[in-house]
Amino acid sequence: MSSIKSNLETGRALKRRVLLMALVAWPAIARAEPPCCGPVTMDGERLRQFLDDTGVDHLWLSGFRVDWQTGAAIEAWPAGTGAHTHCSAFAASAAMRLGVYLLRPPQHSQILLANAQMGWLRSSEAEADGWRMLSGVSAAQTEANRGKLVMAVFENPNPRKPGHIAIVRPGPIGAATLNQDGPMVTQAGGHNALAVPLAQGFGNHPGAWVPGGRGAVRFYAHDIAWTRNPARS
């Protein structure tokens, strides 16, 4: 009898603990943002996996001469010669592997390539090739979730200084977070990352990202023919 009573008391205590935990957790649940920009499609998952497999977290490293296609280091730049980052080489390589042309060597050297890529993406040549400018950050996330290749690009207003370019990652994200920090991106640069908020990834470029997408970053999208090559799917 005492054993039954003890079990009942234990059960009631457990229920109270569960209820208390639920009440404590509820404000956070209530504040949780519903994801915006549509679901991540099968092609979006393919793109996410492709980006995770690029190896950009340990290739295309700053401070080294690199093979622009593979990101493999060739030799270290001499100390004091600058950061020598490779965001644009990584973006061009990733696009090439997906069957999409983005301005790249030998059509343009790796020096100040991101600025040149932005200029090219604005051109009628890029438009004829299938690139289109998007209306803003929500459209960029929506297209990435659908499995489109979306580039976030900043052209430095000083043509003698580097710009920046990164690839928008598919994934669920709340509208408020997207508005504040931008989408998650995969990038090379001063800090290589498989996934980093755009606000952080472009943080070395004042004016590139302003909450609400009011900065100088622009977004361009291109379809990916996932079904043409089984190795990509």
Can you put this structure into words, describing what you see?
The protein is of the alpha+beta class and 233 residues long. The protein folds into two domains: 1-32; 42-232, Alpha-Beta Complex (endopeptidase fold (from Nostoc punctiforme)). Helices cover 37% and strands 15% of the residues. It is built from eight helices and eight strands. Strands 3-8-4-5-6-7 form a six-stranded antiparallel sheet, sandwiched between helices. A two-stranded antiparallel ribbon has the order 1-2. A hairpin with a 5-residue loop joins strand 6 and strand 7 (193-197). The termini are far apart.
Number of structurally distinct domains: 2
Strands ordered across the widest β-sheet: 3-8-4-5-6-7
Helix count, DSSP H or I runs of 4 or more residues: 8
- What class do helices, strands and sheet pairing give? alpha+beta
Rounded to an integer, what's the Rg over CA atoms? 23 Å
Instruction: Please give the oligomerization state of what you see.
Output: single chain
In short:
With 233 residues, the chain is of the alpha+beta class. The chain has 8 helices and 8 strands, in the order ααββαααβαββαββαβ. The chain folds into 2 domains: 1-32; 42-232, Alpha-Beta Complex (endopeptidase fold (from Nostoc punctiforme)), CATH 3.90.1720.
Secondary-structure blueprint of this entry?
Elements: H1 2-31, H2 42-52, E1 64-66, E2 73-76, H3 87-97, H4 113-121, H5 124-128, E3 132-133, H6 137-145, E4 149-154, E5 164-168, H7 175-181, E6 184-187, E7 193-197, H8 198-201, E8 218-222
Antiparallel strand pairs: 1-2, 3-8, 4-5, 4-8, 5-6, 6-7
